[in-house]
Amino acid sequence: MRNRLIRFMEGRYGVDKLHYFLFIVSLVLLFIGSFAVNTFIKAFFLLIALAITVIALLRIFSRNKYKRSLENLMYIKLRDKVSGFVKTRIKMFRERKTHRFFKCPNCKVTLRVPKGKGSIRITCPKCRESFTEKT
Ligand SMILES: [Zn+2]
């Protein structure tokens, strides 16, 4: 039995980070759907959760490893972008009393300067663009 399972999984993609994400999303949808009073809304959540589960299973048993790993890579890139954005916002909120944040008008990178220094000339360390702001 065990050998048969191993032979069945040979050449198949298996589980990756995107799989865990899809699993958690479907669980969250099931959880939310279970609280819905309206039968139609409940069925809607359950159907989406089911569809995501089916997609996750198809990915596990897929033989096209290249495409599945590309999907996983896209997911990881997007996840890192979102988590980077959220971390920056949290940092900006924590330091709001001691620092001010400006966007470089040229390369759009976020710059952090100490608060209460009056009008200062800020030079972007990335592109060397220089601009004046009140702190
Ligand atoms: Zn810049």
Structure description:
By secondary structure, the chain is α+β, with helices and mostly antiparallel strands. The protein has two domains: 2-94, no CATH class; 97-135, no CATH class. The protein is built from four helices and four strands; from the N terminus they run H-H-H-H-E-E-E-E. It has helices spanning 2-9, 17-35, 39-60, 65-94; strands at 99-103, 110-114, 119-123, 130-134. The strands form two sheets. The chain has a two-stranded antiparallel sheet with strand order 1-2. The chain has a two-stranded antiparallel sheet with strand order 3-4. A hairpin with a 6-residue loop joins strand 1 and strand 2. Helix 2 runs antiparallel to helix 3. The mean pLDDT is 94. The site of zinc ion (ZN) has 8 residues, from loops.
* Biggest sheet strand line-up: 1-2
Q: Considering DSSP H and I runs of 4 or more, what fraction of the residues is helical?
A: 55-70%
Cα-atom radius of gyration = 24 Å
Instruction: Report the sheet with the most strands, covering strand number, pairing sense and barrel closure.
Output: 2 strands, antiparallel
- The DSSP helix count reads 4
Which range does the strand content fall in? Answer: 5-15%
Bound molecules: zinc ion
Point out poorly predicted stretches.
none
> SSE string, helix = H, strand = E?
HHHHEEEE
How many domains comprise the coordinates?
Answer: 2
Average pLDDT metric: 94
Q: Any idea what the shape is?
A: elongated
Would you count the extended β strands for me?
4
Instruction: Name the structural class.
Output: alpha+beta
Task: Quote the distance from N terminus to C terminus.
Answer: 70 Å
